[in-house]
Design a protein that fits this description.
The protein starts with 10 loop residues before the first helix and ends with a helix. By secondary structure, it is mainly alpha-helical. The protein has 5 helices and no strands. The relative contact order is 0.16. The radius of gyration is 16 Å and the shape is globular.
Length: 133
């Protein structure tokens, strides 16, 4: 069964909100908050089953608190794959985007399995949310 999103969760709606914020003189932080709110919804649907937002708690996957800018395979008390440990990655926005789109392509041999998110707008939403953690 395919998940259905409301008009409020569409990429077009988010673009209109961001453009409206600029036209009425609102700060970027308001537009960023809107993107982040949508990212939280996508995170809940795609990531939360395996990842915690709590820095003190790993689940099936490592905590994603503070992930943006963090060295890959560096969360304490998590058993990373040898491939991830050897990757040398830092979780920049570009690397996170590539990971979200196709993690196995970015790090062959990773143990993580997930449904790839190839839609750039949805990636933007998730990245906006990850920046808040």
């Amino acid at each position: 069964m395919k998940a259905m999103f409301t008009v409020a969760s569409s990429p077009l709606f988010a673009s209109l909100i961001a453009a409206s914020a600029l036209l009425v003189g609102a700060t970027f932080s308001h537009a960023d908050a809107m993107l982040s709110a949508q990212g939280k919804v996508l995170f809940a649907h795609n990531c939360h089953a395996c990842h915690s937002e709590d820095s003190a708690r790993n689940t099936f996957g490592p905590s994603l608190s503070g992930v943006v800018g963090r060295k890959a395979a560096s969360v304490p008390r998590f058993a990373y794959s040898d491939a991830m440990k050897a990757s040398g990655l830092v979780w920049s926005e570009d690397n996170l985007r590539m990971w979200i789109a196709d993690n196995v392509k970015l790090v062959p041999g990773t143990r993580m399995r997930h449904v790839a998110i190839s839609d750039k707008a949805e990636q933007d939403y998730i990245l906006a949310y990850l920046k808040t953690l």
